[in-house]
Structures are given as C-alpha cells and as structure tokens.
Amino acid sequence: MKEISAKEVQHYIENGVKLNLIDVREVDEVKAGHIPGITHIPLGVLEFRTHELDKSIPYIIVCRSGGRSAQATKQLESLGYDVTNMTGGMLSWEGKVE
User: Fold this and answer.
1) C-alpha dihedral over 13, 3, 83, 44, to 10 degrees?
2) Confidence class of residue 45 from pLDDT cuts 50, 70 and 90?
3) Which residues fall within 8 angstroms of residue 91, CB to CB, at 6 or more apart?
4) Which of 11, 34, 59, 61 has the smallest C-beta neighbourhood within 10 Å, fewest atoms?
5) Which CATH architecture has domain 2-92?
C-alpha cells in the first residue's frame, strides 16, 4: 500500500499541485473541518460509490488518524484504483481547513 504524510500533502497543495483527495470520515467529522477541495465518501458507503471514481486518476485517501483511510486504500487498490493512504490523517494535518 502506498502512503504519503499529511505534511507532504500540505506541501503539494501549498505549491499549487492539484490532488484528488477522498475523505472517508463520517458526515459530522467532515463538517467539523476538512481539507479544502476534498471529495467526501464515507467509508461505509465507499463500495456503493466506486462508480464515481476514475481508475486513471490517482487518489489520496484521508480519515481522522489513518486507520479508515488504510482500509479504504486497500479496498480501492484491490479494485484497480491508484490510491495512496495519507498517514496520520487529519490529526496530523496542519494546513488549511474548511
């Protein structure tokens, strides 16, 4: 499983790199604060929404601490998606939030 740190993601965003972030936290967690520009797909419904994703696009998966995003990363990877887990999740995020 590919991994990237929250600091690396923040660096890319601050330098204008367009990333495709999928936040797999629950609705209330995302409302409390999320990285600008994310796509929100709660882990519990991910298997029903994979048709919304493009296998030719790389995605970075985000959650609170890195556990659920690791699960989602494994799940999507097994279906042929190019996915990377953001280690440490939002607990490690020091960048801008909405």
Assistant:
1) -100
2) very high
3) 64, 65
4) 11
5) 3-Layer(aba) Sandwich (3.40)
Where are the domains positioned within the chain?
2-92
> What's the CA gap between 41 and 22, in Å, rounded?
7
In sign, the C-alpha dihedral spanning 14, 18, 24, 26 is positive
DSSP string for 12-62: HHHTT----EEE-S-HHHHHH---TT-EE--GGGHHHHGGGS-TTS-EEEE
Instruction: Read off the pLDDT of residues 48-83 as tens digits, 9 standing for 90 and up.
Output: 999 999 999 999 999 999 999 999 999 999 999 999
pLDDT band at 46 (very low <50, low <70, confident <90, very high): very high
